[in-house]
Input
Amino acid sequence: MNDKKSRDINSTTTNAKNVIKTITIVSISIIVAIVSFSTTSSSISSVPMALAQQTDNNTTTTPTPTITLTDNAVQVNATEINGYKWQINGQFNPDLRMLANTAYTFTVQNPTDSTHELRIADSQGKDLATSGDIQPGGSGILNFKTNMTSSGGGDMLRYYCQYHPDLMKGSIQIVNQ
Output
């Protein structure tokens, strides 16, 4: 009888050791998966940083996209994604290239909960065109003709929101056709 109890105890001990080995292997696998995921996540989250530019005040910013306006009718949407921004051709606050001596019509939609006003100003800050106030849920029009031949000499224009000038803005370069 003692032999049977001894075999049962040895079998139970062997089973317990196998369970402990299995738990250890599963635990190690989980730890490896967590470490691999966090390494992958940090690599993924660092991708935008690799695309970022260094600025003078030692912060990073994402490069601003530039859009060349080839159509005279331009759709502009006020958005409220991570702060207010203008959306033009699917880009947020893009820099614009506009053809010299060309008339443009900017149709502005405002689905946000705040009033906006699209303005275009010269390099000295003088407003050249405005949409007027655009109430929440409303729309407006800004007509603008680029009557210069080029801003290649460093004379840039800018567009901005009267009420959110630090958030909703971009530069405008006038180019020859």
